[in-house]
Amino acid sequence: MDHHTCPLPAYASYAGGLYTGVFCVQAVHRYKTHWLPLLNARPSDPDLIPPLDVAFVWLCHRLAPEAYARDCQKWFGKVLNPTTPDQALAFDDGSDFTHTSKLWGTVTKNYPNEQQM
Q1: What is the pLDDT of residues 77-114, one digit of tens each?
Q2: How far is 57 from 36, CA to CA, in rounded Å?
Q3: Separation of alpha carbons 102 and 94, rounded Å
Q4: Which of 41, 65, 92, 108 could potentially form a cystine with 100 if both were Cys, beta carbons 3.0 to 4.6 Å apart?
Q5: Domain coordinates in residue numbering, the chain
Q6: Which run of H or of E encompasses 25?
Q7: Is residue 116 pLDDT above 70, yes or no?
């Protein structure tokens, strides 16, 4: 599986940055409407690794554990926890149609994965 475990330099160098602007808004949208539902549908899939922009939003959300738990409870009726350290901290670069890239298409019929953006 092609994924990286040191995301901080990648976050800063992501086209336009992920802290503000259109890429931030798009990342939050992808996180809420695609990643969390995919994670909810496959809660014990250790090979499910989020794309870089989504990994950043997920990490930020989990850094506020009370808000994260409250939001997950409201949206899914349970807290969605990472199943592995890789899932929690790594990101999928979308190359070679990885496991996550293939599954991403099943939940996001008309929304591109990071590779297609």
Answers
A1: 999 999 888 888 887 766 655 777 777 767 655 444 44
A2: 11
A3: 9
A4: 92
A5: 3-22+46-110
A6: helix 21-30
A7: no
SS3 of residue 4 by DSSP: strand
CA–CA separation, 33 and 82 (whole Å): 18
Are the beta carbons of 19 and 13 closer than 8 angstroms?
no
Give the model confidence (pLDDT) of 11-47 as tens digits: 555 555 655 667 778 888 889 988 999 999 888 888 8
Q: Residue 31 corresponds to which tokens in the numbers above?
A: 């996180």
Both tokens of 43, joined, read 């809660």
Reduce the secondary structure of 71-96 to three states and give it as a string. Answer: HHHHHHCCCCCCCCHHHHHCEECCHH
Task: Assess contact for 27 and 62: CB atoms under 8 A.
Answer: no
How far apart, in whole angstroms, are the C-alpha atoms of residue 99 and residue 93? 11
CA 52 and chain centroid, separation: 7
